[in-house]
Write a structure and sequence with these properties.
two-stranded antiparallel sheet, elongated
Length: about 210
């Protein structure tokens, strides 16, 4: 008797394949996979103090460095001094013009000529100081939005201020008067900070930051 014969009624019934799960039968879940963040999902960006991330992954500085803030304040202080100086020289020029008119009335040509020269010099100096005051204010205001042009102009402007302050400082030291030293010394300090603030790494990064 052969159990392997499928036509044998006494043979062992053939093995049936295991039943397949029907439609809708719960399937075995694959190993857990962490959920993926879809398009538009807020991505976490690296942060640094005073910086925020912008497209591309590079940090963009948001707050002005402290040294630049100090230089900005000094520029505004210098502009105030320059405006006061311009008004003072205009006043001196007006007085010299009055002296020239009075000398003409008295027939003193030499005094009139000297007063005319003094009035002209006073007006020129007043205009120069007014122009420098306008430049100081412009540079200070543009610290927030200016680029490399403002940075280079500020460095040159501060360096020239240092040179002028050193000249007057040496003159004041030569006179031996303390009052003639204090103001030039302050001018040198202000000029040095204004020159250094845009030149250091933090100032360079501030003026080179991308703007959107």
């Amino acid at each position: 008797m052969s159990y392997g014969d499928p036509n044998n009624p006494y043979g062992q019934p053939p093995q049936q394949p295991p039943a397949q799960p029907g439609y809708g039968y719960p399937q075995q879940a694959p190993p857990a996979v962490p959920p993926q963040q879809g398009y538009g999902y807020p991505q976490q960006q690296p942060g640094y103090p005073g910086y925020s991330a912008y497209p591309g992954g590079n940090p963009m500085q948001q707050t002005m460095p402290g040294l630049l803030v100090t230089a900005r304040v000094f520029l505004f202080i210098i502009s105030a001094v320059q405006i006061i100086g311009a008004l003072a020289y205009l006043y001196v020029a007006a007085i010299a013009n009055d002296v020239s008119d009075a000398a003409d009335d008295f027939g003193s040509s030499s005094a009139s000529d000297f007063a005319d020269v003094a009035a002209g010099v006073g007006v020129v100096v007043a205009l120069i100081l007014a122009g420098l005051a306008a430049l100081s204010i412009t540079l200070g205001v543009k610290f927030g939005s200016g680029g490399q042009g403002i940075r280079v102009t500020t460095i040159v402007y501060g360096a020239l201020g240092c040179v002028a302050g050193l000249i007057f400082l040496f003159v004041g030291l030569d006179t031996g008067m303390a009052s003639a030293v204090i103001f030039p010394l302050l001018w040198v300090v202000f000029g040095a900070i204004i020159t250094a603030a845009p030149a250091v790494s933090s100032g360079t990064a501030w003026f080179a930051r991308p703007r959107y």
